[in-house]
Amino acid sequence: MRNLRFRIALRKEPEGGYTVTVPTLTCACVTFGETVDEAIAMAQEAVEVYIESLQERGEEVPTEEGHLECRLTVEVPG
Question: DSSP letters of 33-63?
Fold first, then answer.
């Protein structure tokens, strides 16, 4: 067994709670939680279930190896 690490992004929703995405697994892992802790727990579960389904189908599990993360600042008029 090996440990894989995945970045997650949390977005606070106007109606409350947090949407969580896993950038490396964008097609499969989007979830929601009422609190940050709940959202993170939901993301953990979603990633585990997704990886399990990939393995059952004999598909490769995507990793973040070789990925870089940067931030851009863009000036917007107005």
Answer: ESSHHHHHHHHHHHHHHHHHHHHHTTPPPP-
- Least Cα distance to 44 among 31, 35, 55 occurs for 31
Q: Are strands 30-33 and 18-21 parallel, antiparallel or unpaired?
A: antiparallel
- Number of Cα atoms under 13 Å in the Cβ half of residue 48: 7
Going by C-beta distance under 8 Å and a sequence separation of 6 or more, which residues neighbour residue 38?
A: 18
The residue with tokens 């067994």 is 1
**Interatomic CA distance for residues 25 and 62, integer angstroms:** 7
pLDDT one-digit tens code per residue, 33-55: 999 999 999 999 999 999 999 99
pTM for the complete prediction?
0.80
Architecture in CATH for domain 1-78: 2-Layer Sandwich (3.30)
